[in-house]
Amino acid sequence: MKTVESHNGNFTQADETGMTFIGFLLFFDPPKPGILKTIQDLEQLGIQLNIITGDNHLVARHTANAVGMQVSGVVTGDQMDGMPESALLYAVQHNNIFAEVDPSQKDRIILALKRAGQVVGYMGDGINDAPSLHSADVGISVENAVDVAKEAADFVLLKTDLEVLRQGIIQGRKTFANTLKYVFMATSANFGNMFSVAGASLFLGFLPMLPKQILLINFLTDLPEMTIAGDNVDDAFIQRPHRWDVGFIRRFMLVFGSLSSVFDFLTFGLLLLVLHADQVSFHTGWFVESVFSAGLVVFAVRSRLPFTHSQPSRTMLLVTLVVGIVTLLLPYSPLANILGFRPLAISTLGLIAVIVILYFISAELVKRWFYRRFFS
User: Fold this and answer.
1) Class for domain 168-374, per CATH?
2) How far lies 176's CA from each of 172, 237, 321, 322, in Å?
3) pTM of the entire structure?
4) Does domain 25-165 have CATH number 3.90.78.10?
């Protein structure tokens, strides 16, 4: 190879003679082992991966092929320069590689994906990624990223691995599913109880329930519902993303709250017209029915699957059992007089049990109709 002396940094074509080509110097960053399976697992969860980079489009395509991504199309920064927003909106839905783009173009892509109705997570570690990390629904960076990127991100991964993201998505969906369960139960139960109390007040000559009894019902029924946070979640819910839908929650509240009131009124009829209960017996009977119906209906509406096809957590089963035992013992305990209760006849408890079982079966049937009608 010819040695070339420096001419104060001025070189000419004549200097590039007598050289021997040895090869290219390349930087090679091999894909992590198992990345193909991780990408496939993400796709099964309904996650679409896009590459947005300032690198050459050939390099971007090669990277996608190396990790096993199916390339649906490539858009470059030059193509985006003359692209109106309507065309970009179409492009982000039919291409998954965006190469040779500058920071402002990255941000345009993120905003276009959001306008297309996507929930966008963006992962970046450089200064140029800060605007996109801020614009995305979820900004994700890594521990060795620049400070600006980490400050703009919502999450900073301590381990650079897409498998961490997959696990995080699964845990997030479980948390969201259990949060919805609690919201469904709390709103429908409160609506039903409010409607029942208001309705009973129209024809009763006494309070349908004493304040201390209402507080005790809320306390006992909240205990099983607190275990929803660690409840099992159906695989069908995890396999696809879901959104917060206030309209759906409202419909659930109206349907199942009304169903709860129907069986409350059946209990009123049983206690007043059949058993001719006085005020204390009425309070005791409705207390027992309210706690048992609220505790058992959790198992019916905690999943859109039939009760026998969805396994609740052991903690939920145990707490519900304990609450049921306490509810049955309270009217026979020394606290009965303090709480305004009295012991009920075995025949009365049997009739209340029939109402609770009918309520549970009805909730199962209504649940199947409800999800066929309102859930897509």
Assistant:
1) mainly alpha
2) 6, 10, 26, 27
3) 0.79
4) no
